């Protein structure tokens, strides 16, 4: 995340990385500096506190002189925190409660006081004629009450529905709204934004105080906001103001992503072809048609395609500028020449390039290329520590993949290079999790750098029969509070520590 270093004014700990992503912890009070010409930034933030304990993390944003700009409750996974400031310059962010990893995780000595976790910042510029575009009235179509002002700031009340006009060239609107009704009564109020064709482009449950959110509106002449309820000041404060109101609009910024700012992370699926046919049992995107009971044919060979050349050419300039470039999706990246091209034409000193593979094509020629191209990271999915389990879950090819991985590790050793970092991955399911400790033994035997345990992602259910295994997707989810599962994974981590193999579980709250 070095590209954002200059924006982090105060209160951020140094960058950390696990090879897959980069993040920085924010202290409970921190600030960022919006560069000149930039009036908004979208921060990708998450709250480990919430993921681990369920306690929410409240974030308050303030501009110069402490003027409140917004507030947001973080509920765990990465989401966007939009900060807008008409003045540009420094934006203060305070999060509460402060917490330390040592308070939450067993055997953790980390006593730093933390707030949210920052995964990246996208800077957003106001449109070139931002002065006129940042005036509230320029955006207000039917449905808004006349703009009010106390001299210091302007606002407009919305009724049950209202139109926001989208100026030419604007790709997104960052709006700040407040709902005094929610604050006073705790009743819920939701705002839905729809494009001219009826598609929902944003939806937001409001908490009361000023908060900001982004409405995507590229190519749209206007968006329609609809409130789930209206209220009258007279109902709450007494008096005779019987207007039907919903939210109070404080600011609107029309934004374009500036071409001068590079994405911090870019993930691109270069092919959907795969050389494991029929697909792995848990590969839900590549399964064949289902019958009415959800049975899918385990023999089905799904078609796949490489990314069309014109599309690749169109996005390549953006790929080249990314800080982290992930060259994978559902298919096998080593099947497409676009992987080679991407690695050859991107600069390893600027971009961290990584991909997932099934390992079947990690032959001598490809390994030589990956090392010569200074590829940083290759993660091979095995999902099994034994050939028997591999055949049931993924199919044929175990001896080839194990030989390839051993050879790849030896090549690196002989050439005295540390790249690419090689990981093996196990998607934990009921059928295979007992092999987790043996998976660490396997990693040690073949000499890889890292082991990753991930979990089965929720998907539409299906079932099939494969090599004596009746595999129903929904039966394979793991209950992470299950004692047998936790003990098994703890044993795997113990072995990883004993052998000096970096072991990562992408399973929230696993040892909490
Ligand atoms: S190797 Fe990957 S893309 Fe191919 S079938 Fe298995 S999970 Fe799906």
Description:
This protein has 512 residues and is an alpha+beta fold. The protein has three domains: 2-105 and 112-124, Jelly Rolls (Sandwich); 130-257, Jelly Rolls (Sandwich), CATH 2.60.120; 265-506, Alpha-Beta Barrel (TIM Barrel), CATH 3.20.20.70. It is built from twelve helices and 27 strands. Strands 1, 2, 3, 4, 5, 6, 7, 8, 9, 10, 11, 13, 16 and 18 form a 14-stranded antiparallel β-sheet that branches. The longest helix is centred in the C-terminal third of the chain and has 18 residues, at 398-415. The chain is elongated, with a radius of gyration of 26 Å. Bound molecules: iron/sulfur cluster. Iron/sulfur cluster is lined by residues 274, 276, 279-280, 283, 286, 330-332, 358.
Blueprint of the fold:
Blueprint: E1 8-12, E2 16-17, E3 22-34, E4 38-46, H1 48-53, E5 57-62, E6 68-74, E7 79-84, E8 89-96, H2 101-104, E9 117-126, H3 130-133, E10 148-149, E11 154-157, E12 161-165, E13 172-178, H4 180-185, E14 189-195, E15 200-206, E16 211-216, E17 222-227, H5 233-237, E18 248-257, E19 265-267, H6 309-321, E20 324-326, H7 337-345, E21 352-357, H8 364-372, E22 377-381, H9 387-393, H10 398-415, E23 421-428, H11 436-446, E24 450-455, E25 463-466, E26 469-472, H12 483-499, E27 502-506
Parallel strand pairs: 19-20, 20-21, 21-22, 22-23, 23-24, 24-27
Antiparallel strand pairs: 1-3, 2-3, 3-8, 3-9, 4-7, 4-9, 5-6, 5-8, 9-18, 10-11, 11-18, 12-17, 13-16, 13-18, 14-15, 14-17, 25-26
The structure holds iron/sulfur cluster.
């Amino acid at each position: 995340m070095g590209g954002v270093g200059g924006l982090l004014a105060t209160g951020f700990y140094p960058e950390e990385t696990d090879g897959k992503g980069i993040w920085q912890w924010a202290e409970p009070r921190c600030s960022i500096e919006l560069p000149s010409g930039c009036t908004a930034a979208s921060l990708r933030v998450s709250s480990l506190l919430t993921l681990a304990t369920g306690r929410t993390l409240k974030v308050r944003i303030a501009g110069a002189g402490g003027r409140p700009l917004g507030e947001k409750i973080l509920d765990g996974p990465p989401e966007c925190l939009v900060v807008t400031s008409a003045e540009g310059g420094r934006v203060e962010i305070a999060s509460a409660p402060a917490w330390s990893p040592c308070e939450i995780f067993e055997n953790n000595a980390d006593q730093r006081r933390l707030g949210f976790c920052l995964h990246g910042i996208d800077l957003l510029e106001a449109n070139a004629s931002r002065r006129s575009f940042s005036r509230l009235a320029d955006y207000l179509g039917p449905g808004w009450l006349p703009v009010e002002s106390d001299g210091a700031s302007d606002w407009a009340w919305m009724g049950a529905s209202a139109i926001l006009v989208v100026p030419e060239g604007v790709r997104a609107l960052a709006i700040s709204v407040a709902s005094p009704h929610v604050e006073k009564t705790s009743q819920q109020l939701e705002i839905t934004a729809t494009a001219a064709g009826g598609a929902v482009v944003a939806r937001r449950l409001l908490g009361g105080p000023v908060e900001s959110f982004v409405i995507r509106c590229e190519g749209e002449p206007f968006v329609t906001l609809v409130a789930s309820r209206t209220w009258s000041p007279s109902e709450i404060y007494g008096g005779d103001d019987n207007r039907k109101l919903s939210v109070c609009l404080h600011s609107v910024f029309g934004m374009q992503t500036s071409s001068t700012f590079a994405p911090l992370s870019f993930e691109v699926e270069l092919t959907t072809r795969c050389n494991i046919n029929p697909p792995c049992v848990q590969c839900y995107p590549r399964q064949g048609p289902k019958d009415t009971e959800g049975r899918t044919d385990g023999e089905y060979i799904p078609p796949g395609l490489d990314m069309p050349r014109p599309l690749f050419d169109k996005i390549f300039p953006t790929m080249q500028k990314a800080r982290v470039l992930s060259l994978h999706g559902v298919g096998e990246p080593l099947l497409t020449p676009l992987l080679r091209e991407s690695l050859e034409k991107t600069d390893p000193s600027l971009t961290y390039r990584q991909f997932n593979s099934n390992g079947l094509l990690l032959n001598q020629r490809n390994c030589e290329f990956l090392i010569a191209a200074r590829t940083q990271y290759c993660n091979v999915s095995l999902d099994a520590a034994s050939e028997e389990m591999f055949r049931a879950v993924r199919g044929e090819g175990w001896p080839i993949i194990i030989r390839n991985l051993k050879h790849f590790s030896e090549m690196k050793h002989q050439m005295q290079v540390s790249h690419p970092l090689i990981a093996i991955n196990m998607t934990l399911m009921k059928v295979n999790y007992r092999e987790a400790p043996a998976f660490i033994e396997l990693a040690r035997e073949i000499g890889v750098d890292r082991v990753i345990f991930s979990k089965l992602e929720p998907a539409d259910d299906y079932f099939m029969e494969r090599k004596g295994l009746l595999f129903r997707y929904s039966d394979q989810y793991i209950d992470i509070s299950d004692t047998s599962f936790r003990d098994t994974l703890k044993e795997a981590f113990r072995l990883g520590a004993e052998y000096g193999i970096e072991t990562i579980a992408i399973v929230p709250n696993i040892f909490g």
